[in-house]
Write the C-alpha cells for this entry.
Amino acid sequence: MSMNVKRRVFLRGSLAAGTVGVAASAGLLTPQAVIAAWNEKAFQAKSIDDALTAAMGEASNTASDAIKIKAPDIAENGAVVPVSVSSDLPGVESIALLAEGNASPLVATFMLGEGAVADVSTRIKMGKTSDVIAVVKSGGKLHSARKSVKVTIGGCGG
Amino acid sequence: MAKSIKIRAKIKGDTTTVKCLMTHPMETGLRKDKKTGKPIPAHFINEVVAESGGKTVMTSNWSGGVSKNPYLSFAFIGGAKGDEVKISWTDNQGGSDSGTAKIS
Amino acid sequence: MKITKLTLAAICALSASVVMADKMAADTTPAEDLKLYRDYFSKRFPGIPLNEYGNGVYAIDKVSRDSWEAIEEFPPYEPMIEAGESMWNTPFANGNTYGSCFGDDPAQRQHFPYWDAKRKMVVTLPLAINECRVNNGEKPLKYKKGAIADLLAYMSYQSRGQKINVEVPDDPDALKAYNEGKSFYFARRGQLNFSCASCHMQSAGMHVRTDILSPELGHTSGWPVYRSKWGELGTLHRRFDGCNKQVRAKPFEAQGEEYRNLEFFLSYMNNGIEFNGPSARK
C-alpha cells in the first residue's frame, strides 16, 4: 500500500523531526547504562527528588540552556501530550522525562547507547497543568530544563 | 496479523532518526472500569530496546505515564542506508514484541 | 410543507440569536443555504481557505495545531488503516469481498452520503458497508467503533484527496430529508438546550470552558477519527451520539434516520472540501 503518497504533508516542519544540535562526542557511552531492569522505585516515587535519586543516583541538578524541551503551551488533551527533548551537552548518557503534576512524576528514562544522540520524543499523559522536566546526565552531572504545559479540562472535546 | 510496532528509520547526513508507533493499552492501573467499578490492572510497556548494527543504541524505560498506543522517536550516528533497526518492547505483564525496519 | 415551515419558524423564534438559523430555516433551497452558510464562516474566519476547514479546530487555533501536527506526523490510526485493509482483502464466507459490492475500489467516500430515490432514504458509507455484509451472509458490524471504524479508516485513507460532493436531487422526499437534517442542526435540545448551531456556528472559535469550539464547516471530512479522548477510532455517528449526550440530550441511533439526515445536510454544506480521514483529534 502506498502509505507515503497519501500521508498528510505539512508545510511547516513538525515537532519530532527537528533536531537541535548533535552531541559531538556521541559514542562515549558506558555499557552499563544501556540495559537496566525496570526501576520500580524511580517510577513509583511521588516526588521529583525521590524519582531522580532512584533513577539517576542523585537529585541535585543545574538548570541548563543546552537542553530544549518542545511541548505544547496548552495540551488539548492530557492523555496525549507530544514532548521532545534534545540537548547539545557533551556525552549525554541518559535523559529522564518527568511531569511534575503527575502522581508519580517520572514518566520515561532514556539510556543512550552506542552512537545515540540526545534527541528523543514521545507522547505522555499529564494529569494536570504542571511543568514537564527534562533531566540530562552529562559529564557525570545532572542538568535540567522545564517547560510549563497547561492541561485543560475540556468543555466538550476533552 | 500485523505486529504491534511500526517503524520508520531515515538517515540524513550521518544521523539516523527512528520513529516508532506501538499498539498497546498502556493502562496505568489507576483507572476503574466504568461498568464494574473495579480497577483496571496496570498493563503498560515498561522497556523498549533499540538495536542496530549489532549494538544496543538505546534503552528506554517507561511508566504507565506514556500515552496509549505509544510513540517513540530517537536518533543515532553510525548507521547506514540498508542497515536494520530492531525495536523490542516488554511490558509489566510479561508480554513482548519486536519489529525491524531498514534504514532508508 | 406547511408543517415544516411552521416548525422551522418556531425553531427560529427559539434560536433568534442565531441569525443564520432565521435565514436558513425559511424555505430556502440547499444551494441558497450553502451560500449563506459559506458566507457566514468566511466572515467569521476571514482568510481561511475552504479546504483548511477540513482540519477542524486546527484550522483556527495555532497552539493546538502544533501538537496536532506532531501527532499526525506519525498518527496513532496507522495500524487501524492496515487492519481495515486486511478486512477489505478478506473474503466473506461465501467467497465474495467488500470489493464485490464496491466495484473493487475502496476509495468510496466521494459517493457518500447519497439520496436513494428508490428506497427514499439517505445512504451513508457505513450503512452501505453493513448492507454489503448482510447481503453476503455476514453479520452487520456495530456502527460507532471497532471493526467498522478500521474498515472506514482504510477506505477513507484511500479516498484522501477526493472532494465531498453530495447531491440533493430536486425531489420532494430528498428535500424533506435534507430539511429534516437542517432542522435537527438548528434545533435546541437537551438539558443544556444547545443546538449544533449554538456551538458550531454561533460560537465557533469561542471557548466552552477550555475547549475551543470547531466551526461546523469541514466537520464531515476527517472521519473516522482517532480521538485522544477515546484512545481509539470512532465514527461520525459516534460523535453525534457523544455531542448529544454532552448537552444532556438523549442521543439517536447510530445510522438511524435522524443522524443519516443530519449527515446528509452537514455533508452538503461541506461540498468541495477534500476528504482527509482518518484523522487524529483531541
